[in-house]
Amino acid sequence: MCKLLIVSIFLVTLAGCSSSSDVPAAENAIAAFHSELNVGDFNKVYDNGSAELKTATSRKKFCMILNAVHSKLGLFTNGRSTGWNDSATINGHYVTINFDADYQKGSATENFVFQITGSRAVLVGYHVNSDALLLN
C-alpha cells in the first residue's frame, strides 16, 4: 500500500511538470544570460542566480569566469541548443541544456543548469568549454 501511495504521488507530481513550457523558459533564460554577458553585467547574472549557485561559488569568482569568457571570446553572436534534460527530483525541478555558442573570437560548448520555479528558470550552474579560452 505504501509503495502504491509513493508511486501515485510521484505520478501526480510528474504530471504537474511540463517540459513543453520548462525548456522554453530555460531557453529564454539563456538568451537573457547572453545579453547580460554581452554588456558585461556579470553581477546581474549572479544576482539572478539560485541559492545553489551562490553556495557553489562566490560572486568574485563567478564574475571573473564570466569576464574571461567575455574578454577572450568577445560578444555572443549566435547559438543553438544541442540537447536538454528535464528532471523532477526530490531536490527540485531542473532543466539542463547543452548549447553550441558562436562568439566573435571563437566557438564554445556551454552547459546550463536551471531550477524551474513556477514558470521561471533560475540559473544553478554554467559550464563552458572552448579552445579559444586558452588560445586567445
Question: In angstroms, what separates the terminal alpha carbons?
Answer: 61 Å
* Helical percentage: 40-55%
**Residue ranges: pLDDT <50 for 5 or more in a row?**
2-18
Name of the top-level CATH class: Alpha Beta
Question: How many β-strand runs?
Answer: 4
How would you summarize this macromolecular structure in one to three sentences?
The protein is built from six helices and four strands; from the N terminus they run αααααββββα. The chain has 136 residues and is of the alpha+beta class.
What would the keywords be for this entry?
35% strand, 4 strands, alpha+beta, globular, Nuclear Transport Factor 2, Chain: A, 49% helix, single chain, 136 residues
Protein model, in words:
This protein is an alpha+beta fold and 136 residues long. It has one domain (19-135): Nuclear Transport Factor 2, Chain: A, CATH 3.10.450.50. Helix content is 49%, strand content 35%. The chain has helices at 2-15, 19-38, 42-47, 51-56, 59-73, 131-135, and strands spanning 76-89, 92-103, 106-117, 120-129. The longest helix is centred in the first third of the chain and has 20 residues, at 19-38. The model is unreliable at 2-18 (pLDDT under 50).
Detail the topology: elements first, then pairings.
Elements: H1 2-15, H2 19-38, H3 42-47, H4 51-56, H5 59-73, E1 76-89, E2 92-103, E3 106-117, E4 120-129, H6 131-135
Antiparallel strand pairs: 1-2, 2-3, 3-4
